[in-house]
Amino acid sequence: MTEAAARRAPGAPCWVSLIVHGLSATEEFYGRLFGWEFRPGPEELGPYVRALLHGKEVAGIGQLPPGRHLPIAWTTYLASEDADVTAEAIRSCGGTVAVGPIDAGRAGRLAIASDPGGAVFGVWQPGEHLGTALAGTPGTPVWNELVTRETSSVAKFYQAVFGFDTEAVVSADFDYQTLSLAGRPVAALHGVGHGLPRDRGPHWMTYFEVADTDEAAARVVELGGQVIQPPREASGGRLATVADPEGAVFTIQRTSEH
């Protein structure tokens, strides 16, 4: 178990959050799945809680205002030293800024944007809140991956905005690029062509670590969620793609080292 609340390099995934219709039912689901406890705030974001493991912040969950019908999805936030400068870069490189940049009190400053393919992500300029404060233990985010049609054009966007180095997997039938900062892989782009879910389009996928993928997938169903792709072996460990009761999709992963 490692504490991960250092200031992230600009571009590195630093936080994940989810905005739902039913906040208390969602807290119940993730509390029972991952052992999360919840603390309210910041108030500037409306009804919002931070999920804690061992007292350390690992994710955020907020409530949609009544009558708002946005897609229910986990959002990956990428770190920024200046959210306004990053927002300008997003626009000039063909992306869209949908929300902000706005202040979240003393916690930091944020924007919600989408890349040229339409995948939504957040930008977080840390104030008092640096991001996910725990890593390497079940119930924590372990990886973030953009699922898109093809990686070559969208890779240029993320390189230009965030300064990633990219490294493609050389394979005729596998379109995959790793995003690195200072030589360290921090996220990936996965081109799936026509395999992209029609109802979702390009999207960032959050991976959460679990102790046992099969057991966690069964628990998701018991708690009212669903399994979208059953447990399978992959290079990073055993994975399953699941959705919570409101339909937010995420991947659970038991890493190979465990």
TrEMBL record:
InterPro entries named in the record: Anthracycline_SecMetBiosynth, Glyas_Bleomycin-R_OHBP_Dase, Glyoxalase_6, VOC_core
CDD domains: SgaA_N_like (cd07247)
PROSITE patterns: VOC (PS51819)
Segments forming domain VOC: 12-126, 140-255
Superkingdom classification of source: Bacteria
A Pfam family it matches: Glyoxalase_6
Protein name: VOC family protein
Native species: Streptomyces flavovirens
